[in-house]
Design goal:
By secondary structure, this protein is of the alpha/beta class. Helices cover 23% and strands 22% of the residues. It has one domain (18-256): TIM Barrel. The longest helix is centred in the middle third of the chain and has 14 residues, at 104-117. It is globular.
Length: 261
């Protein structure tokens, strides 16, 4: 049996990549959804890729449908690179999920292929793992880090939700990893808001980080009252540390350590 990893630290045997990379064919990504153009998840207009699968279970996760590793769809890296290269008027791509560092090798390959045709494409990613842990991660995870311009790191902590730029809770950090956005700290640290999209057939979706916790549950409840068919949030939520501890105590502990949420 492999040695247990440090709290919230990926490694070859028990890292965030382990459950997903073994399941996918080479040159493919398991994707929940993509968005051609978004102005609320990073600098400028950006494409967004939500990967499928996450080993963490942060209470109040805004994208619970992306957590199972068996969901989503398999997409060839080459196909996604073509899509990114041909999109008009975008500054970069934001990688969300799910846990992007669970498919780090394929995402690094994707950025290389897209930048071969679009050299100025910037890259931002979200991760429930701290930067320090990712730097001790696999070769693929370190390779993806090397290709990023911005990283939002750390688990989402519902009890510490705030009105923050591109982040959900105040334990999460917005970290420039290249000179591209070295001045990011000079920007106002307030939410960029959310964007709503209506697709073919009337499908409704949204992107962004709400200013208050519970936004998704409230929105889905209201849409249901209006007659829309809404996929319900997963009601099965585990509470670390047992029932004798308050949710806030558990969440505060998560924020101050690199422990798995």
């Amino acid at each position: 049996m492999p040695e247990p990893s440090e709290a919230n630290e990926p490694n070859e045997s028990a890292g965030p990549n382990a459950p997903n990379d073994r399941a996918e064919a080479a040159g493919t990504l398991r994707i929940s959804r993509v968005l051609d153009r978004c102005g609320v998840l990073g600098p400028g207009w950006r494409a967004v890729i939500w990967v499928q699968g996450c080993p963490l279970r942060c209470r109040g996760c805004l994208a619970e449908e992306t957590l199972p590793f068996s969901g989503g769809e398999l997409r060839p890296v080459a196909e996604l690179a073509d899509w990114l290269a041909e999109l008009p008027d975008i500054e970069g791509v934001t990688l969300s999920g799910g846990e992007p560092f669970g498919q780090a090798g394929a995402l690094a390959e994707l950025l290389d292929a897209a930048r071969a045709r679009r050299p100025g494409l910037s890259a931002m990613a979200y991760s429930g793992f701290r930067l320090e842990a990712l730097r001790r991660g696999t070769l693929a995870q370190r390779a993806l880090l090397d290709r990023l311009d911005l990283l939002v790191d750390g688990p989402y902590v519902e009890a510490r939700h705030g009105d923050l730029l591109w982040r959900g809770s105040d334990n999460q950090r917005l970290l420039p990893l290249s000179d591209r956005y070295a001045d990011i700290a000079e920007r106002a640290d307030t939410s960029a808001g959310i964007e709503v999209s209506v697709g073919a057939g009337g499908t409704f979706s949204w992107a962004g980080v709400p200013t208050a916790p519970g936004f998704r549950a409230g929105l889905e409840n209201r849409l249901g009252q209006l007659g829309y068919a809404v996929r319900p949030l997963n009601e099965a939520r585990s509470v670390a540390g047992g029932a004798d501890r308050s949710e806030r105590e558990v969440d505060e502990e998560r924020a101050e350590t690199e422990g798995t949420p």
